[in-house]
Amino acid sequence: MSAFRDAVAAATQGTPYCVVTTQKGFDVQLDIVNAQWWDLYNRAGLRKSFRWRVTERKSSFTITDRQINVAWRGGVPGFGATMEVQGGRIFSFSRQKIWAISDHGRVQPVVDYRFNSREGRDLIRLVARQQGLKERQPLILQLTAAFILVTPIFFAGYGIIRLFLWIAGIQN
């Protein structure tokens, strides 16, 4: 256990998030099995769960987002035989508000749910700043950024070479 993990766990108290220890750090995830939250998730029709994988180092950390499809069976969350997982940096926002006859027999909002994938990252970053830790980008994001930067340069270079060969009369 680390002080960083413990501080994040303390910050999630009373929220729909929980902290799970991993080999290289910890995960912050939606607490879909907690009875306090499962009714809201079920009524909102939650189909995707988010997990923020935190890898700790001495004075830094990385956050990798993971999105997992969730299947609901009889109001109880369960993971199906097939699972779709996305990783990297995921930007997701959803909001759902449903008015219907409530359990009390009145027309009122029975679902008022919003989700922003930044919430988990922001919670982790806030605690990290308090601990004096610096965020580093995960390797997958560094590779993606490098690919995005190199691709136009590669194609521009290819076009310049083709133009040079055409001017020199070597290629049509």
Describe the protein in words.
Keywords: Membrane, Transmembrane, Transmembrane helix. The chain has 172 residues and is of the alpha+beta class. The protein folds into two domains: 3-136, no CATH class; 137-172. It contains four helices and ten strands, in the order αββαβββββββαβα. The chain has helices spanning 3-11, 35-44, 118-131, 139-167, and strands at 17-21, 25-30, 48-56, 60-69, 71-73, 76-78, 85-88, 93-101, 107-116, 134-135. The model is unreliable at 79-83 (pLDDT under 50).
Topology:
Blueprint: H1 3-11, E1 17-21, E2 25-30, H2 35-44, E3 48-56, E4 60-69, E5 71-73, E6 76-78, E7 85-88, E8 93-101, E9 107-116, H3 118-131, E10 134-135, H4 139-167
Keywords: Membrane, Transmembrane, Transmembrane helix
Transmembrane segments: 139-167
Q: Which term fits the overall shape?
A: flat
Distance between the termini: 66 Å
The count of strands amounts to 10
Number of domains: 2
Gyration radius from CA atoms, angstroms: 23 Å
Oligomer: single chain
Largest sheet: 6 strands, mixed
Transmembrane segments: 139-167
Keywords: Membrane, Transmembrane, Transmembrane helix
